[in-house]
Amino acid sequence: MLDKSMGSTRFDDLLEQFLVHSGVERGLSPATVSAYRTDLVKYFSWLAEHGKTTISSVSSQDIDGFLQSLSGLSARTRARALASVHDVHRFALDQGLTDIDVSRKIKAPKTSSQLPQVLSIEEVARLIGAASIGDGTDPASLRDRALLEFLYATGARVSEAVGANLGDLDFDERIARLTGKGSKQRLVPFGSYAADALTRYLNVGRGPLQRAAKGTQETSAVFLNKRGKRLSRQSAWEIIQSCASRAHLCKPVHPHSLRHSFATHLIQGGADVRTVQELLGHASVSTTQIYTHITPTMLMEEYVTAHPRAVKR
């Protein structure tokens, strides 16, 4: 229990109570709670170094000073840190540990409006094709192709893909149940390419991987590693990187590349932005709207086609 007499609660006690509240009462994911811990350990350490011992003694100037100490980091990282600071101050106010939220009026730094790196349809095909090594019947190759097809077909985050269970796949309706941030679930369709790759992997490749486990076999996870355990996010990242290297893609490829490409290709194909928002599991349509921007290539193609003096004829 927190001692609610102002000035008596230590930062480490406040942090642990806030993390329990975030994970248990708010139902936030372990990854989100971990991010809170990382940000707030830095914040409370900075405050302690500057003579602050309780949340009620913190001023808005202190928060500005902490943000300035993060000036070498990206705007996105600083914005996340400030979001954590906002949340812990609101929690302290709700708990009666302070009589004012001094963080309330402090705004996050502007994040970059740079468009996400997107693969072309042809590059996606090359990336997925590179998953098949040799005759493509090796269990790991079957898994890798199924994983990439699944990521591109559903726009799933890598964490959602590796967290998927067999019961989350409905092959009759071709629908996958994904569990996203905050344990929120959504239903996303997948097409024939993904269905075929998943079926082949589950029928031929998953069994040998499952039997490679020492001890209890994994019976729930869709994607398994070579030791028969649930595939990790790090391993999925390494699979994507290996396939990108074999595909000789010139642009950087990262875990979200297929998710970005999924959204962009849907928008370019005529999908409504709110539909794409639901498919991606975005809480706000403003997050999805970044995919509606016209790419430089599309802009040039339209310009050359439409402007009467763009090229000599």
Which structural traits does this protein have?
313 residues; mainly alpha; DNA polymerase, domain 1; hpI Integrase, Chain A; 2 domains; 3-stranded antiparallel β-sheet; 13 helices; 52% helix; globular; disordered N terminus
Written account of the structure:
- The protein has helices at 11-25, 30-49, 60-69, 75-94, 121-129, 139-154, 158-162, 192-211, 233-246, 257-268, 273-280, 285-288, 296-306, and strands at 169-170, 175-179, 185-189.
- It is mostly helical and 313 residues long.
- The protein has two domains: 11-94, DNA polymerase, domain 1; 121-298, Intergrase catalytic core (hpI Integrase, Chain A, Orthogonal Bundle).
- Strands 1-2-3 form a three-stranded antiparallel β-sheet, with no helix packed on it.
- The relative contact order is 0.10.
- The model is unreliable at 3-8 (pLDDT under 50).
Give the SSE layout.
Elements: H1 11-25, H2 30-49, H3 60-69, H4 75-94, H5 121-129, H6 139-154, H7 158-162, E1 169-170, E2 175-179, E3 185-189, H8 192-211, H9 233-246, H10 257-268, H11 273-280, H12 285-288, H13 296-306
Helix pairs in contact: 1-2, 2-4, 5-6, 5-9, 6-8, 6-10
Q: What structural class is derived from the secondary structure elements?
A: mainly alpha
Largest sheet: 3 strands, antiparallel
What is the H/E string? Answer: HHHHHHHEEEHHHHHH
Oligomer: single chain
Q: Let me know the average pLDDT.
A: 88
What percent strand?
under 5%
End-to-end distance: 79 Å
**Main sheet: strand order:** 1-2-3
- What general outline do the C-alpha atoms trace? globular
Rounded to the nearest angstrom, the radius of gyration is 24 Å
Number of helical elements? 13
Helix content range: 40-55%
> Using DSSP, what is the number of strands?
3
**In the CATH hierarchy, what is the architecture of the largest domain at level 2?**
Orthogonal Bundle
Level-1 CATH class name of the largest domain: Mainly Alpha
Number of domains: 2
CATH topology of the largest domain: hpI Integrase, Chain A
